[in-house]
Structure formats: structure tokens, C-alpha cells
Design brief:
The complex is a heterodimer of chains A (about 1050) and B (about 140). With about 1050 residues, chain A is α+β, with helices and mostly antiparallel strands. In chain B, helix 1 packs across helix 5. The longest helix of chain B has 18 residues, at about 120-140. In chain B, strands 2-1-3-4-5 form a 5-stranded parallel sheet, sandwiched between helices. Chain B is globular and about 40 Å long. Classes of the chains: A alpha+beta (about 1050), B alpha/beta (about 140). The interface of A and B includes residues 849, 856, 887, 902 and 906 of A.
Chain lengths: ~1050, ~140
């Protein structure tokens, strides 16, 4: 099926191709010239074809002739080669003879040659050249001149001769000019003799050469044959073949379409060329025939093409008009064959498929639309075919070109050829979308009207000229209590009581006559009830003619009843106002009394007269402008009221009024007037005033309080009151402050939350420190005391504020001062540490480096005394001993200074020290000295005495004091030392008393200074550092030392240390 | 009986020429056979370590001053103790300093003894004698 489709499409394409070609031709060549030009083209085409045929015919003839020439030429070559070979055999024969008789003489040579030469040989002569010099010759006559020719020196033959000798092979030379005259070809054969003994070298004898007369050779080979029928040429002198020069015939023959063959020679070849003697042949008769037939065919083709082109032109013109028609028609038109394959279509249809006609042709619906739709199209085709005539249907389709949808009406008609055979189905489709839309619009409008009429609660109906109901809605049926079927077609007489029906009819007739629409109220009586109706009735005019009446009739029974009810209610209201137990009056916009209560009349002394309808201002001409303004505001829609309004009476007394002016609104929403209510509250007011005065007294107390006090609502923190000091404190005026949220006066709102929490829990807060800010954001610190109070029936916070900013600032200053002080101490300590560090380095160097030279001085002094004893006199030895003594002093001094400095630098620990044990330890150290001096040492009251001290430091102190006692009491008999301990509240005092020389109390302080001595060194040796160490150590341990004495009375040293 | 230790030398580390001279004299005084090797600063003393490693005879004892040029005595002691060849070599600190911190530092670095050089020559001689006697004759050194 598919293949068939393709085949038919190919046929269509071929037909189309011819058309297209012709059409293109027309366009290209222009209207009038067309058939003629096509004819001319056909002639040229056929003529060109004839030329090609003729060319090939000629080619064939030429090939035949060349073959002939080649055959004849090959014969000539064979003959030429035969003659040359005969001569070569001759030479070869001679060499065979000479090989056996190398010393052959002229006579022998001639004899043998004579036997060998016969008529086959074109020989000029034959020569033997032993050792390359010609000495043998046959025939000798006429060739004597050649005898003695030395090949090695001959200008033209030397090269060929040497080539023959060196190659050891026969060589053909020439044609060349002979020395003895004539042109010849020379064949030279080298001759080598067998070696004298086996295994030796072959010896070169010389050359044997045959000189072949060139002309004889040509003749013998038949080259000069007059009936040859060929023109010949030879080239390749010396056997050089096609490369050599031409030596026979016309050199032009080579390359002139000639036939060539190679002539094989020993060691080379010649090339021979030939063409027919009268050149290559002439035009044959068959060629002439071909040419004649070609011309006739071209003429016939021209005439045929001319006719064909003319017909095609006519057809194309008709086809183009048809095409234009199809292209411009706004309907889709297409033609499918019986199988549903598209044959053609117009541009409108192309849009539907979104493809060009060329692409649509040969395809089916299935190639362009969804399968289900294509099936429907195909089904419709079949319907038309079965019906045998046009078949119409409507359908929605989507245009592939732009995706829009159209409702189309398609007419499909089967098409038959002249024989009544089905060709296919022609389709025409028209866009009926708009038409369809209008129809639908009409339907919708009708439905809308129907819904409108049916939905109305008003009865709607139409009657014809005769008064019969022709249209009626549901409301009508409901009103009449009858089904619509009974109503339509009936007239009023059938539906209403006689009298009413007559009136309706009269109305109808009047309206139809006047042609005017009327609206009026009327009673409608039905079997069940009587209604009041508002009816609009008008003439039914169709096409300018009154055809009946239409009517809309509304049931207004309820409204009528409501109006009646309203009237009743108004009466009741008036009564209500009149008897209201307050002064109440209702005015219209002109301030005329509409209603008034009796109380009003009493209050304003208006009893008796009828004031309704009269103006308020007329009754009270003295009424103040203020009140008139208030009335106007009320009339403008505002509610104006005053709870307490003083009103000075004529007699000077003050009347207090509570009043309200309120607008009232008419049915249309506009202000219809005002209602004034007023109440005399003078008595209540007087009672309040008494209370207020008492409150004011308290308030002024609070107001003048010498501290800020505020009152704020507990619920939301809104400030309710602040006294005079509070205003100053917070920088607020009363108007500004009241109503502010208290939050804004806190530096940190969470502080207020904390404050409130406290307050809720304990009911009060005392002296809470709070960071606050003034109205303009200036911060301050406050001490707040507060309690919850009841204010205007709500819990409120009553707080007293104490500004403590100044105090806080002072505290901050002190804290900052402290910080600075600490920082300074830190700096000083650091400086001190540095200084100590330096001092330590210094003393360390002293201890190390100062002692070394001393040791040297002492050492060498000692060595002098020892080793040079004999060289020194008494005085010299004394000097050296003094040197050594000085060194010893110096050494002691250094040690003491180091001890002193150590005491200053050491970090002393404060630990509990057992005094008794420590003192015993020191005395044991010095036992040797004590015993040596016979000193009596007494220790008392140290049992269980402990002090807080550095054990080493205290040992140093005691050691020095014991040494001191030993030194200064040495002359006492016996020296004594008493050590006693005493305890006080916070400290322990250790007392050391000796019976030494003592000192004057004027020096009691100076003795502790470093280097301070009271005695000469030679009397009491020492460095003056010991007591300085004592005082330093005591200071460092947090204790003190002092001394008491008198000269000659001994000395007492006191040590006081913390317990 | 003269112990074989006699043949082992004493290494004296001393920068001060006076002290050096006096010390040598003090030792010479007793005519003991121990040869005396001298290092004039800390680095020279440490330079002995590779030589000992190479097999040279170890000294019986090192007499080490603390205040030395280039590398000070405590550092020398620390390195001697840190090195396997000399970690158990007897080292006697012989110095002018009687400062606590020197004493403590020396013992913390495992000095075998801490002796303060006396200024008085007789006492100095006495100390030298004691050292010689003790370390050369009485003490049993590690091998």
C-alpha cells in the first residue's frame, strides 16, 4: 500500500517536473519567444547528438587504418632485424675462426671471409683489428685506406670501440659516415683468447667489425619499396632507441599520430615510425549518411517541440488561472485519491496542516493530524463515496500553522473520471466559527431573558390584542394560583371576577390606544385573597405595530401594611418622649420642636403653651451663641456632650448641667435634626466639690514634696502623675509627661520588669538602684522606693525617686582611683623587680670577682714570705703580714656585705618557728667560741614559744647578736649572755642581754646602720655590717629590733616578731 | 699502695690566671703523680668530650669554676651530665661564689661536690690538699 503510494507520487513528480521545467522556461525566456526558442533548443540538441555519433564513427575508421599500418610496419621490422642479424652471424663466425688462429694473416682472413659472405649480407667490408689497430680486411679492394686505423686514437670510432672492448659484448654503431666514404652501420665484436694455461686470464685479442652498407640494408629490408604505401622514419643512431636522432625518413613523422615499433639490436634498439603514404584517410560515406539523418532528426525534433511547447503554454495558462482561483478562495480546498492520498490542496489548506502543498501531496491525514481525527476524516471520505454525492459535516479543527481553532463546515464530494471511475474525494471546508458564535449568542440571550422573567418575583405577562395571555412567568402563576397551562390562552374574564376583569380590559384598551406605558396601584383579587399591586403596563410594540400589552405587577401589600405600622409607631414614640423622666426634646433642621418631654417643659418653664412646631430660638431669643454653635455641630452630624457644664443663672447661682446633643437621621440617611437631652446635676456637683477640695489639699502636699514622686498605671506603665520635683528631675512638663509609658525613663527596660516583679511579689520596693533617663535622654542613677496603690479603681505604682547620680559618680571615681593606684603599684613593683635584678647581678659579680684578686694578693704574699724568707728583713716580713691582714679584713667585709645583700634580696618565708630549738641550734654552732671565752649563757622562758618568721633569717639574726655579745663582753669576768622570751597579745619579744662594754644611748639607733662602728677596729675587730643585717632581717620578717644600753653597763637587744 | 687511678689526670677548668697558678702550685706542693689538664674556659672543657669518646683517658675528677667565659660553668656541667661518656664523671664545683642559687643549681645538675675557694692562701692550700687526697686516693671512681 505504502509502496503504491510512493510510486504514484513519483509519477506525479515526473509530470510535475515537466511542468515545472516548462514553467521555468517560460519565465526565463519571455512570453512570445517561447515555442520558437524551445524548437531551436531541440534542433541544437539533436544536432549535437549527431556530432557525437559522427565522432565515434570516425574514431572507429581510424583505428582500422592504424591496425593496417602496424601490421605492415611489423613486417618491415622483421626484415630489417633479419638483415642485421645475418651480418652479426658473419662476424661471430669470423671471431670463432680467429680464436683458433689468433695470428691469422690478411690472406687467411680474406679466404675465410670470402667463404662466409653471401647475398644475405649487405656487407661493405669486414675488418679485424688485433690490439685495436685494423690490419685484416675483406674485401681489401677499395678499403685499403682503413688499414692501420687505430681505434684508440680515432675521433669518431674510438668511443664505440672501447665500449665493445670494455663491455665484452657486441655493439652496433651508426649509421655513420665511413672514412672510405658512404654511410654504414658497424657491428663490433670483441675477441678474447682462451688462457695459455688452465685457470689463467683470458687475453684480449682485438675487435672484429662488420661494416654494413646502410643503403643496401634499407633496400634489402624493403624500406625503399615503391609500393609500400607507407611513409617511414627511423631514429636511434648507435642503438639509442627513441632518444636518438632520426637518421632515415622525415623526422616530423614521429609524434604525428604515426604508428611506431622498436627494432631490437645487440646492445640497443632503433625506433621506426610510419603513416600511410597519403596521410590518414578521408570522410567515409557512412559519415555523410549519419550527418544527413542527424539534420533531418533535428528538424523533426524542432517542429515537435514547438507544438508541444505551444500546447504546454496553453495548459499552463489555464492551470495558472485555476490555481489563482484556488489560492485566493478563503475556503480550504483539497483533493484526495480514493485511498486518501492527497493530490493537491490550496494555501488555506496548507495553513491547516502547517505544511507546503509539495509536502502534503502524496501523504495522508495520518501524517498531519492525530490518529483519531485522521480516522474521522477518512470515515467522512467513505461516507461521501458511499453516498455518491456531496456529504456535509461540521467539526472543530486546530490549525497547525498558528494553533488557532475553527469550527468548519466541510463538504466532501466524490470525483469520477469520464469513464465513471472514482478518482478521489474533493473537499471544501468553510470557517463557520463566527456564525456558530452568533447562534449561540442568541440562545444565551434568550435563556437570559427567560431566567430574568422567570426569576422575577413580580408577575410579568403579555396579552394579545384580544386580551388573551400569551406570555406569563412563574410569579403570575403563583399569584393566580393556577398552572401556567390554564393561564396561557385565557383572558381576564376567565381568571378574575367580572368587575375586575372589565377594569383590566379597559386599562388594556386605553394603553393600546394611547401607546403609552403607565404605572399605578391597583387591587388584585384572587380566589384566595386580595392584594395591593403596583403595576406597570405598556403597549407591546413589535415591528412598529401594537400587538398587545405587557405588564409587570408587584405585590406591595406588605409595604402598605408597614407604612401603616410606622405611623402607629411614631405616635407611640411621641408619647414615650413626652413622658420620659428626663428633659428631652427633638428638633428638626430648623430647630423646631418635633417632640418634647414633660420634664423639658417643666425644667424650662414652658408648661401650658403648645410649643411643637415652634422654633427653639423663637421661644428662647436670649439663647447664647455658644449653644447655637453646639446645635449647629449636632445638625452637622456630631454628637456633642458635656458631663458637667456650669451655667450661671441670672440670680448669680451656678447651675450644673449634664447634657447631650445628638443628631437623628431621616430615612434617607441625612441628619433630620437633633435630640437634646439635659439633666440638672447641681446637687451632685456640690457634694463632689467638697470632696475635691480635701483631695486638693493632699495633692498639694504631694505636689510640694521635696523629692520626686510619680504615679503610673501598673497595667501598662502609663504615667498618670508626677509632682513638681518629678517634673524637674525628668525634665518634663506635666502635659508632656502624663500619658508617657514609664519604660522610656529606664536606661534598660528589663530593669523595669525586675522592678515590677519585685513590686508584685512584695507589694513594695525599698531603695532599689535603677538606671534612669530624663525625657531628653540624659541618664541618671536613682534610688527608687515604691508601693502599689489603688488609683481610680485600678492598681497603680506610687514611686518616690532619689537621684543618686552624684554618689554613684563619687563611687566610680574612687574605684577608678583605686584601679589607678593598683596600676601604679604594679608599675613600681615591676621597676623594683628590675632594680633588684640588677643589684643581684651586681652582688653576684662582687662575690665572684672581688675575691679572686684578694686570693692572689694573699697567696703571693704568703709565697714571698715562704720562699724568699732569707731575702726579707724583719720589716719586710711585717709589711707582708700587714698586706695579708688587710686582705683578710677585705675578705670578711665582702662576706658580710654579701650576707647583708642576700638578706635584702631573699624571699623570706613566714612559717611557725620553735624559738627554743632555734636558739639552741645557734648556741651549738658557737659552742667552741663560747667555751673559749668562758661565757655563761642563760636561756629562759622559751618553752613552747613559737613565732612566725623565716627560720634562716632568724638564725642569721641570732648568730650576729651572739657574735656581738661574744665580742663586746670578752673582757667581762665572766662574760654572760641571758636570752629571755616574753609573749604579748600579738607578738613575741626575745630579749638578749650581755654584760659587755655597752654603748651610749645617743647611738641606740645608729648602731644598726651599715658600716657604723663605735669602737676602733684594732680594739674590736669587725666590719660594721652585722647589726645592719640584724635590722634588715627583722624588717623583712615583719618584726623589729631595738637596743637599750649605757656605757659599761652591758647591752640589751630586743627582737619582736609576730606570733 | 698507689692505686692505678694515679695515672688518670685531673681536669682543671679555670679562667683566672692567678687562681690557676695558685691551684697548680697547691697541687704541685704534694707531688702527687696525677697529671693536670687545664681548660681555660667552658668551651675548652666541652671540647674534651669528643676526645674522651675517641678513647682518650678520662680524668679522675673535673674541678669546675662557675664563672667562665664563652660557656659558663653550670652549662658545662649540664652538658657533661647530658652526654653518655661523661654523665657519671665526678665533677667538683670549685668557685668563689657562696650564693645559694649557685649551690642549688650545681647540685640540681648533679655536681658531686661544691667547694668555695677561700681567700686565705693557707686555707686554699688546705682545700686543694683535701680535694687531691679525697678524689685521688680515697674516692673510688667509675671506670
Amino acid at each position: 500500500m505504502r509502496q503504491e503510494m510512493q510510486a504514484s507520487s513519483r509519477r506525479l513528480n515526473a509530470a510535475g517536473y515537466v511542468r515545472v521545467m516548462l514553467a521555468t522556461g517560460y519565465r526565463f525566456l519571455g512570453e512570445k519567444a517561447r515555442p520558437w526558442l524551445f524548437a531551436l533548443l531541440a534542433v541544437l540538441l539533436v544536432f549535437a547528438t549527431e556530432q557525437v555519433v559522427e565522432h565515434f564513427a570516425r574514431q572507429s575508421d581510424l583505428e582500422q587504418e592504424r591496425s593496417d599500418v602496424l601490421n605492415r610496419l611489423s613486417t618491415l621490422r622483421a626484415r630489417l632485424e633479419g638483415v642485421i642479424n645475418a651480418n652479426l652471424f658473419l662476424v661471430h663466425g669470423l671471431t670463432a675462426v680467429i680464436e683458433n688462429r689468433p695470428d691469422i694473416d690478411q690472406a687467411g682472413f680474406s679466404a675465410i671471409a670470402n667463404n662466409l659472405v653471401d647475398e644475405r649480407h649487405a656487407l661493405h667490408n669486414i675488418a679485424g683489428a688485433p690490439d685495436m689497430v685494423i690490419s685484416l680486411m675483406y674485401p681489401l679492394q677499395g678499403n685499403e685506406a682503413a688499414l692501420g686505423l687505430d681505434y684508440r686514437t680515432h675521433p669518431t670510432q674510438r668511443e664505440g670501440a672501447l665500449r665493445a672492448r670494455d663491455s665484452g659484448k657486441t655493439v652496433i654503431a651508426g649509421p655513420l659516415s665511413l672514412q672510405q666514404g658512404g654511410i654504414a652501420i658497424i657491428a663490433r665484436e670483441p675477441l678474447f683468447l682462451a688462457p695459455a694455461q688452465p685457470g689463467g686470464k683470458r687475453r684480449f685479442w682485438g675487435l672484429v667489425s662488420a661494416v654494413i652498407d646502410a643503403e643496401t640494408l634499407y633496400r634489402m629490408a624493403g624500406l625503399r619499396d615503391p609500393d609500400l604505401g607507407l611513409r617511414l622514419a627511423l631514429r636511434g643512431t648507435d642503438g639509442t632507441g627513441s632518444h636518438g636522432p632520426v637518421f632515415f625518413g622525415d623526422a616530423k613523422l614521429f609524434g604525428n599520430r604515426s604508428v611506431t615499433v622498436d627494432v631490437t639490436l645487440p646492445g640497443g634498439s632503433w625506433q621506426m615510425a610510419a603513416i600511410p603514404a597519403d596521410g590518414w584517410e578521408q570522410i567515409g560515406t557512412n559519415i555523410v549518411l549519419i550527418r544527413l539523418m542527424g539534420l533531418l532528426a533535428a528538424l523533426a525534433a524542432g517542429i515537435m517541440v514547438y507544438r508541444l511547447a505551444r500546447d504546454a503554454q496553453a495548459l499552463a495558462s489555464y492551470s495558472a488561472r485555476l490555481r489563482t482561483l484556488l489560492n485566493t478562495i478563503p475556503d480550504m480546498i483539497w483533493l484526495k485519491d480514493a485511498r486518501g492520498v492527497y493530490l493537491t490542496c490550496n494555501p488555506r489548506f496548507e495553513q491547516f496542516f502547517g505544511a507546503r502543498e509539495a509536502d502534503i501531496k502524496g501523504k495522508t491525514d495520518h501524517d498531519f493530524v492525530p490518529a483519531d481525527q485522521a480516522d474521522i476524516f477518512r470515515e467522512r471520505d467513505q461516507v461521501a463515496i458511499v453516498a455518491g454525492g456531496p456529504s456535509t459535516n461540521e467539526e472543530w479543527v486546530t490549525f497547525a500553522s498558528d494553533g488557532h481553532r475553527e469550527l468548519i463546515e466541510t463538504i466532501k464530494t466524490p470525483v469520477y473520471d469520464d469513464n465513471g471511475r472514482l478518482l478521489g474525494v474533493l473537499g471544501i471546508a468553510r470557517d463557520i466559527t463566527e456564525r456558530q458564535k452568533q447562534e449561540e449568542e442568541m440562545k444565551r440571550l434568550h435563556a437570559t431573558l427567560h431566567a430574568l422573567v422567570e426569576g422575577s418575583t413580580d408577575a410579568i405577562f403579555v396579552k394579545d390584542r384580544e386580551g388573551r395571555y400569551i406570555v406569563g412567568n412563574r410569579a403570575l402563576a403563583t399569584l393566580l394560583g393556577r398552572p401556567m397551562a390554564e393561564i396561557l390562552g385565557a383572558d381576564d374574564h376567565a381568571l378574575f371576577p367580572e368587575e375586575l376583569a372589565e377594569r383590566f380590559r379597559a386599562d388594556d384598551l386605553r394603553i393600546m390606544a394611547a401607546g403609552v406605558t403607565e404605572t399605578y396601584e391597583e387591587p388584585v383579587v384572587t380566589p384566595s385573597a386580595t392584594y395591593s399591586h403596583l403595576t406597570t403596563k405598556g403597549p407591546l410594540i413589535i415591528d412598529g405595530e401594537v400587538r398587545g400589552v405587557f405588564a409587570l405587577s408587584r405585590d406591595i401589600t406588605e409595604r402598605k401594611q408597614a407604612e401603616a405600622a410606622l405611623q402607629e409607631s411614631e405616635t407611640r414614640l411621641r408619647l414615650f418622649i413626652e413622658h420620659a423622666p428626663a428633659a428631652l426634646a427633638m428638633f428638626d433642621r430648623e430647630m423646631r420642636y418635633l417632640a418634647v418631654s414633660r420634664r423639658w417643659l417643666t425644667d424650662y418653664s414652658l408648661e401650658g403653651g403648645n410649643i411643637l412646631g415652634r422654633s427653639h430660638y423663637e421661644i428662647f431669643p436670649e439663647i447664647s451663641e455658644r449653644w447655637k454653635t453646639i446645635h449647629r455641630r449636632g445638625l452637622a452630624g456630631e454628637v456633642v456632650q458635656a458631663d458637667e457644664d456650669p451655667f450661671e443663672r441670672g440670680d448669680g447661682t451656678v447651675q450644673w448641667l449634664c447634657w447631650e446633643v445628638r443628631p437623628w437621621h431621616a430615612a434617607d440617611g441625612a441628619v433630620g435634626g437633633i435630640v437634646i437631652f439635659s439633666e440638672d446635676i447641681t446637687e451632685r456637683k456640690q457634694a463632689e466639690q467638697v470632696l475635691q477640695e480635701s483631695e486638693a489639699r493632699y495633692r498639694s502636699l504631694l505636689e510640694m514634696a521635696p523629692f520626686p514622686a510619680v504615679l503610673s498605671r501598673l497595667r501598662d506603665g502609663i504615667l498618670l502623675y508626677g509632682n513638681h520635683r518629678a517634673e524637674i528631675q525628668y525634665g518634663i512638663s506635666r502635659e508632656q509627661g502624663i500619658g508617657q509609658p514609664a519604660d522610656r525613663f529606664y536606661q534598660n527596660p528589663t530593669q523595669r520588669d525586675r522592678f515590677i516583679d519585685h513590686l508584685r511579689k512584695d507589694g513594695r520596693v525599698d531603695d532599689l538602684e535603677v538606671g534612669m533617663v530624663t525625657m531628653d535622654g540624659h541618664p541618671f542613677w536613682a534610688l527608687v522606693s515604691a508601693s502599689i496603690v489603688d488609683f481610680e479603681n485600678e492598681p497603680a505604682i506610687f514611686a518616690a525617686i532619689n537621684d543618686i547620680t552624684a554618689r554613684k559618680r563619687m563611687e566610680d571615681d574612687i574605684r577608678q582611683l583605686n584601679d589607678e593606684l593598683e596600676e601604679r603599684v604594679r608599675q613600681r613593683t615591676a621597676e623594683l623587680d628590675t632594680a633588684n635584678q640588677e643589684l643581684e647581678t651586681f652582688t653576684y659579680s662582687v662575690s665572684h670577682d672581688l675575691k679572686a684578686p684578694l686570693r692572689g694578693i694573699d697567696g703571693y704574699s704568703r709565697l714571698l714570705l715562704e720562699q724568699y724568707q732569707t731575702l726579707l728583713d724583719e720589716e719586710g716580713r711585717l709589711f707582708l703580714n700587714n698586706v695579708r691582714h688587710g686582705v683578710e679584713q677585705m675578705s670578711l667585709l665582702i662576706e658580710d656585705l654579701l650576707a647583708y645583700s642576700r638578706m635584702e634580696r631573699r624571699s623570706l618565708t613566714g612559717q611557725s618557728v620553735d624559738l627554743a630549738r632555734l636558739v639552741t641550734g645557734v648556741l651549738d654552732e658557737r659552742r667552741t667560741d663560747i667555751e673559749a671565752r668562758g661565757m655563761i649563757v642563760e636561756v629562759q622562758g622559751l618553752q613552747e614559744l613559737t613565732v612566725r618568721a623565716d627560720p634562716e633569717g632568724l638564725t642569721m639574726v641570732l648568730r650576729n647578736l651572739v657574735d656581738n655579745a661574744l665580742k663586746f663582753a670578752r673582757d667581762s669576768r665572766p662574760p654572760t649572755l641571758t636570752i629571755r622570751g616574753a609573749i604579748t597579745e600579738k607578738s613575741v619579744i626575745l630579749k638578749l642581754h650581755d654584760n659587755g662594754i655597752g654603748f651610749d644611748m645617743q647611738f641606740h639607733d645608729r648602731i644598726f646602720n651599715i658600716f657604723q662602728r663605735l669602737q676602733r677596729v684594732e680594739d674590736y675587730p669587725g666590719t660594721g655590717v652585722g647589726l645592719a643585717i640584724v635590722r634588715k632581717a627583722m624588717q623583712r620578717m615583719g618584726g623589729r629590733v631595738w637596743a637599750e644600753s649605757a656605757p659599761g653597763q652591758g647591752a640589751t637587744f630586743y627582737l619582736e616578731l609576730p606570733r | 699502695m698507689i692505686p692505678d687511678s694515679i695515672l688518670r689526670p685531673i681536669l682543671l677548668v679555670e679562667d683566672n690566671p692567678v687562681d690557676l697558678d695558685l691551684t697548680l702550685r697547691a697541687f704541685a706542693h704534694h707531688n702527687l703523680a696525677s697529671p693536670i689538664q687545664v681548660a681555660r674556659d667552658g668551651q675548652e672543657a666541652l671540647d674534651w668530650i669528643p676526645r674522651w669518646e675517641a678513647g682518650e683517658t678520662m680524668p679522675l675528677v673535673i674541678l669546675l669554676d662557675l664563672k667562665l667565659p664563652r660557656v659558663d660553668g653550670l652549662e658545662v656541667l649540664r652538658q657533661l651530665r647530658a652526654h653518655p661518656v661523661s654523665c657519671d664523671l665526678p665533677v667538683v664545683v670549685l668557685t668563689s661564689s657562696s650564693e645559694d642559687r649557685d649551690v642549688k643549681a650545681a647540685y640540681r645538675l648533679h655536681a658531686n661536690s661544691y667547694i668555695v675557694k677561700p681567700v686565705n692562701f693557707e686555707k686554699f692550700m688546705d682545700v686543694a690538699t683535701q680535694i687531691e687526697l679525697y678524689w685521688l686516693l680515697i674516692n673510688h671512681p667509675p671506670r
